[in-house]
Amino acid sequence: MRRFLLISVPYIWLLALFLVPFVIVLKISLSDAAIARPPYMPTFDWAEGIWAFLSQLDLENFTWLIEDDLYWKAYLSSLKIALTSTILTLFVGYPIAYGMARAPEEWRPMLMMLVILPFWTSFLIRVYAWKGILANEGFLNQFLLWTGLATEPLQILNTTTAVYIGIVYTYLPFMILPIYAALDRMDDSLIEAAEDLGCSRMSAFWLVTIPLSKGGIIAGCFLVFIPAMGEFVIPSLLGGSDTLMIGKVLWEEFFSNRDWPVASAVAVILLLILVVPIVLFQRNQQKEQESDT
Amino acid sequence: MKRLSAFNVVSLTLGFAFLYIPMLILILFSFNESKLVTVWAGFSTKWYGELMQNEAMLQAAWVTIKVAVFSSTIATVLGTMAAYVLVRSGRFLGRTLFSGMIYAPLVMPEVITGLSLLLLFIGIGLDRGVLTIVLAHTTFAMCYVSVVVSSRLATFDRSLEEAALDLGCSAAEAFRLVTLPIIAPAVVSGWLLAFTLSLDDLVIASFTTGPAATTLPIKIFSAVRLGVSPEINALSTIMIGIVTVGVISASLVSKRALVKQRQEEQEAVRTS
User: Fold this and answer.
1) What is the residue-averaged pLDDT of chain B?
2) What number is the ipTM of this complex?
3) Which residues, by range, are in coiled-coil regions (chain A) (predicted)?
4) Does the distance separating the beta carbons of A14 and B139 come in below 8 Å?
5) Separation of alpha carbons A44 and A46, rounded Å
């Protein structure tokens, strides 16, 4: 009895507040927009029966998404932005994680703390901080003008470049931590062995260190890519009107256009796109866990 | 022998500069006299004063703290239960679905979680406000809590629990007297994580809130959209300060707890 209670309370909570809402999104994505409250058709009516209800559902919103190239472009450009910024984050994050793993033992808790601290700090505030830096009269431009690297202020804020900077900055801890964990587990004598056997330092790095930290690299990349794909805050604060990202499109479809069925259809497709990386990520995590034990 | 190469030193320096300079600039300019956030015009704390006068902002801060306390507390209870089920309950009907529902919210884009919960609340005719935000935050935060707690439960020596049961404890007593003290650090960090996630959340709160309940992130977002303002810098500085103190003291406490636990274990080994 107690076991039943223990299982059923969190189970029912998640069913009611996680799974059921998805079924509703799916249902509304198959409905039609209507000027009513709530603004979609058909609403479920027990009297009419379930078949009458189901027969009114159709794929119209999805055909609409395919025909209107705004959505296509938004998905593709989100994919491009998420992929590019994941690679950029890897290039910025790997040397930091590597440096941390090679730092003296007594520094490491301190360095870990320095990476984790921004992670606990408000996401919104960290994105906001870049607004003052990237603006036309901002610090970066002041600095560039002062050093003579630029002769006139560069337009960075409200461009896609600013979005890249924002994503790299906010998701950097997610990249550093798993890579650091992988490098930290690594046995240093392997590098020594490689060097004794005639590897140069560089080739020992490429042939031993990189392959052994592969699990961490993969985990870090997914941890950046998956949330970046649906990102809303960064493109709307740092991006310009030409920065198309699907999270922003969904938000506007819902709040500005009040087209709930189309917003739901956008969500369903975004989820379908993300299923692949999510499953791959889970597999990678399982593999890592198994190799640990 | 590990040695930091010049490359390591440079990448660490640049990396941490990149992580911290934006926040330092933000903090510095919260003490700026001028309203222009990019030109330094002398030291002043007037923006903190203005912030304290800003009724709407204080109201939003109060709502946010209320939501965070309630949702993180409920999430900690539910998340700990869920972790216990995942690690200890063996097989039961729908276990795969259950663990799927625990892990999925961790990677779900916030816009989708927010949208789906809003559609649910409208569907069942629940008025949107503090209650709906608490429900929404509890749902995604409990998953984080259960991940944190279950990793502790998985490495935990079950024979301790069995010993308690053999010595006549009921299952509930064994949990309260043996299991809970051991997993307590994980439960506390789960609560802290849930609390910060709730404080920080803009997207899900925007979807699930009504006109009556504006949280701080929603307020900040609408102010920040228009541009930079020294008042927001002041607010950010306060929030960064709280988080810094919190994270550092939490890590000191957990370090001390670890040291104490080790000492006790050694003591136990010696006396036995």
Assistant:
1) 88
2) 0.86
3) none
4) yes
5) 7
